[in-house]
Amino acid sequence: MLYVTVTDNNGCTATDSLKVHVCCYGDAYYTPRPTQLNDSVILQNLNNGSYIVNGVLTINANVNISNSLVYFAPNAKININPNYTLTVSNSYLLAECDTMWDGIYINGTSSQLVVNNNTFIKDAKNAIVSTNGGNIQLSGNITMVNNYKNIVVSNYAGTHPASISATTFSFNSSYSFLPQYPPISATRTYSGIEINNVESITIGNTASIANRNYFDNMDFGIKNYCSNLEVYNNTFQNMSFIGTPTYPPTGGVGIISTAGKFTPKNLTVGGISNGTINTNKFEACYWGIYADYYQNVTVQRDTFNNTVWTSVYLYSHPTKTIKVLSNVITNGIIGIHNGHCFNSTIDINYNRITNNYYGIAALNVNSATVQKLNIYNNYIWNNTYGNGIQVTNIQGVAGSNTQRANISNNFVYINNPDLNNVQGSNGILVNQSPYALIQLNSVSRPSGTVANEAQALNLNGIHIQLSPNSKLCQNTVSYMGCGLRFNGAMANTTLQLNNMLNYYFYGVRLDNAFIGNQGNTANCTAWRNRWNISSSLIRIQGTASMQHIWLYDGPNNTSNLYYPAPNSVNPPNNLQLQNCVNYVSSCSETLPLSALAPYTPVVENTYNYTIYPEKNRYWDKQFYYYDIQNSPLMASSLSSDIHALSFYNMLDANNIGTFAKVNAYMNNEDYAVSETLNNSIIPTNDIEKNRQIVNQIYLDTWAKGRFEFTTDERSVLEAIAYLEPLTGGGAVYSARVMLGINPPVNTGTTKMAQQTSLIQNAASTIYPNPAKDMAYLEYSLIEGEVAYIYFYNIMGVAIKSYMIDSSKNHFEFSTTDFKPGLYFYSIKLKNGKLLLSNKLIIIK
Question: What is the sign, positive or negative, of the torsion defined by CA atoms of 494, 496, 501, 503?
C-alpha cells in the first residue's frame, strides 16, 4: 500500500492511499510461460501467443491481437492512442492473479477498437470504455462475461460511431466473480452497456437476426443517462432482483433510461422499418423497460415474457410524446404503466397483454391535463384479479377531443376471476378523470354467474368514479358482476347504446352516484342501452344521490332478446323511468346552448343531493373551477355570464382556488412555491385536510426524488387511501397512486344507514377526522341504552374501548396514544348489536 500525505501552508494535512499490486507473472504450470508486457508501448501485432499485462499497455500503432491468450494483472488496462486501431480477433482477454483488471480505453473519434471472431472478454471492471466518441466495433459472436461493467460510452456531442452486434453480455455463476479494487464491491455484473451524455447512439444491428445481442443475468442490460438512444435486435433475459421494488430500480432491469428537464432526450426501443429486424425481446426480467423524466419514448413491436414486476414503466415525461405500440406482453404483474402524465401526448395502442394482473395504467398523483391520451385497440387477457385498463386523475378539457382519456376498441377478457378477492377486478377503471370517452370496448369473462353481492362488487365491467361529463358508448360487457358501475358526483355523464349481457348481479350499479339524466328529455329520445337478462331486479341497483330521469324505448317484455327498459330499480329512490318512442342509433350527445350551461345547477346551487350533500357540492365546485382553468372554451364564456364569473372568482379566492394553484406549481415542478401555498391553507373540511396532508407528503418525498416512505408517512397515506373518495376527496386517489394500490370501493354508506336505522334515533360522528390529539364523539341513544365504542388497528386488533350511555350526547377522548395511521371503530349496544362502523385517521 502506498500512502501519500500532503501539507498546506497552514500546516493542515491530508492522507490517502493507493494499493500497488505486485507484478503478476502467471502460474508456473503455464507452458510456455506467457510473455510479460509491463507498462509497454505496443507497435506490433500480438498473434498466436500468450501474454501477461502489468500496468498500462499503450497502443501506439494499428495493432492486431489474434488467436492469443492475454492475461491482465489487477487493475491493468489498455489505452488506445488517437489515430490508431486495436483489432482483437479469436482471442481471450481475462484476469490473472485473482483480482479484476481494469479495461480497454478508447478516447476520441480517431481511436478505434475492433473486436470480432469469437473473442472472449472476462473479469474486467470496465471492459470497454469509450469517451469523446472513441469508436467501438463489435461483431462475430463476441462473449463478455463476468465483467463488472461491460461497455461504458460517455461524453460525445455527435452521433456515436459505435456498432455492437452478435455480442453476449452475461454473468455466469459457474465462473467465479473476481474481487474488484475499491470502491467497487459487487457479486455480479452491473451493466451490459452504460451510456452517459451522448448526443445519439444506436445499440443493435438490424441487418439480420444473427446480429442479435444478448444481455443475461445482470443488474442493468442497458443503462442510459441523458442520451438519445435507439435499441434494436436485442434480447434481455434473466434480469433478476430480490426484494421490494424501488423507484428508480436498483437492479433487474432490461433497459433503464433517464433524462432531465433541461436535457430532454429520445428513447426508441424496437419498431419496424423496411422489413428489418428491429424488435427486442425481454425474458424473465424484473422490469423490462424503465424510463423516467423528459423523454420522447417509443416502445414498439417488442416482446416481454415472464416479467416479474412491470414490463413497460414510464414516469414523468411532461410535454413529450409517448408511443407504446403493438407489443406482446405475456405473464407478469403489470403490463404498461405510465405515471405522471401531465401535459404528455400518449398513445398506447395495439398491444397484446396476456396473464398480467394489471394491463394498462395511465395515472397522475394529482389531477393534471394531457395533450392526448389514447388507449386504443389493445387486447388484454387479465388474470384472477386486477384492472385491465386504469386511468386516474386525467383532467379532461371541455371542448377538446384529444385532451382527455380516450379509451376505445379495447378487448378485456378476465379469465377465471377470483370472486372472493377483495382487490377485485375491473375491466376498465376510470378515477377522477372528467370528460373520459369510453367507447366500443368489450369486457367479458368466459361464462358463469356470481353468487352474492360481495362477489358481484368484486367483478366490474366498466367502473367510473367521480368523473363527470364522461361518455360511455357502444360498449359490450358480458358475464360480469356489475356491468357499468358509477361512484360519486358525475353530472352530465352519457350512457348510449351499451350492451350488458348474461348473468349479471347488477346491470348498472350506482354507489351514492349522480350521473345525470339518461336520454334527451327535451324531445324524449332514449339512449338505447340494453340488458340481455331476464330478471328485472338486476337491471339497475344501488343508491342514487339525487333525482335522475332514465328514458327507455320500446316495450318491456320477456319476448325481447334485449330488454330496453330498466323496468326495476332497487331501491327505486331518485331514479324516474320514462318510456319514449324515439331513440338514438349511433353515439351522439346533446350539446348545451353554452359551454357553461351544464354547470348552471352548480352555480345556482340547485342540485338537491340527498346523500352527502356538502361533499357532493364540494366535488361539483372543484370540477367547475378546474374546467374553467383548463378549457379556453369555458374560460371565454365567463365574460358573458356574470353569475358564473362571480362564482368562479369566489372559488378562486377560497381554498379550492389555492389548492388548484398548489397543484399547478407541483405539476410545473416549482415545489418551493407549492409548499408555501400549501402551508398557508386553513382546511375547512375533511376533503381539504386530506389534500393538504397528501400534498405535504408528496413535497417531502416524490418531489425530492425519494420514493420510499417512512413508517409514519406510509401509515398516513394508507389511512387516507382506504377512505371513500366521495367523502375523503381527491387526495384519496393521490395516496393510492403514491402507494401503488387500488383498494376495493367502500360501499358502506348504504349499509351504515341500514344498520343505524335498526335502532331509533341512533346516530354518531367523530370529529375532527383526521384527529391529532383529541377527538369528540357525538351520538344519540334511546333513553336507558348503554353502548360501547371499540377501536381497532388496521389488522383488526382491538386496542381501546369506552362505554357511552344515553345520559349524554357527546364523549371526548384522547388520541395521543394512537400512532399515526388508519383505525376502525364500531359502536355496539350492550347486547352486542352493531349500531355503526367507520374509519378514523390519526395524524401527528
Answer: positive
Cα 742 from chain centre: 12
Instruction: In whole angstroms, give the CA distance from residue 20 to residue 14.
Output: 19
The cell for 691 is: 389534500
Question: Around Cβ 238, how many Cβ atoms within 10 Å?
Answer: 16
Locate the DSSP E strands across 440-589.
Answer: 442-444, 459-465, 471-473, 476-478, 482-489, 494-496, 499-501, 506-514, 525-526, 530-532, 540-544, 548-553, 569-570, 575-580, 582-583
β-strands 763-767, 774-780 pairing: antiparallel
Nearest to 445 by CA among 456, 462, 459, 458: 459
The 10 Å Cβ neighbour count of residue 797 is 8
Distance CA 383, CA 334 (A): 11
Q: Are 308 and 332 in contact (CB under 8 A)?
A: yes
- CA distance linking residue 674 with residue 699, whole number of Å: 8
Please tell me what DSSP assigns to residue 466. Answer: S
Residue 828 amino acid letter: K
Q: What are phi and psi of 132, to 5 degrees?
A: 55, 35
Phi-psi region of 402 (alpha: psi -120 to 50; beta: other; left: phi over 0): alpha
> Cα separation of 655 and 349, whole Å?
39
86 with 109: CB under 8 angstroms? no
Task: Look up residue 535 and give its amino acid.
Answer: S
Q: What's the mean pLDDT when you consider all of the chain?
A: 88
Query: What would the grid cell of residue 593 be?
Result: 346552448
Residue 803 buriedness (CB in 10 A; 0-12 / 13-18 / 19+): exposed
How far is the first Cα of the chain from the last one, in angstroms, to the nearest whole number? 53
pLDDT attached to residue 95:
94
pLDDT in tens, 360-419: 999 999 999 999 999 999 999 977 678 999 999 999 999 899 999 999 999 999 988 888
Beta bridge partners of 99: none
The CA distance from 685 to 622, in Å, is: 14
Three-state secondary structure of 532-560:
ECCCHHHCEEEEECCCEEEEEECCCCCCC
* Predicted confidence (pLDDT) per residue in 288-325, tens digit: 999 999 999 999 999 999 999 999 999 999 999 999 99
pTM for this prediction: 0.86
Model confidence at 536, pLDDT cuts 50, 70, 90, reads low
- Angle CA(91)–CA(94)–CA(96) in degrees, nearest 5? 135
Ramachandran sector of residue 545 (left: φ over 0; alpha: ψ -120 to 50; beta: rest): alpha
The alpha carbon of residue 236 and the mean position of all alpha carbons in its chain are separated, in whole angstroms, by 22
167-181, 666-680, 782-796, range with the lowest pLDDT: 782-796
| Strand order across the 821-829 sheet | 798-805, 786-792, 821-829, 834-842
Q: Where would I find the H helices in 389-517?
A: 453-457
pLDDT above 80 for 20: no
Q: For residue 32, is the peptide bond before it cis, meaning its omega torsion is within 30 degrees of 0?
A: yes
Count CB neighbours of 785 within 10 A. Answer: 18
For residue 589, the tally of other CB atoms under 10 A from its CB is 14
The secondary structure element, H or E, covering residue 619 is helix 613-630
In CATH, the number for domain 758-842 is 2.60.40.10
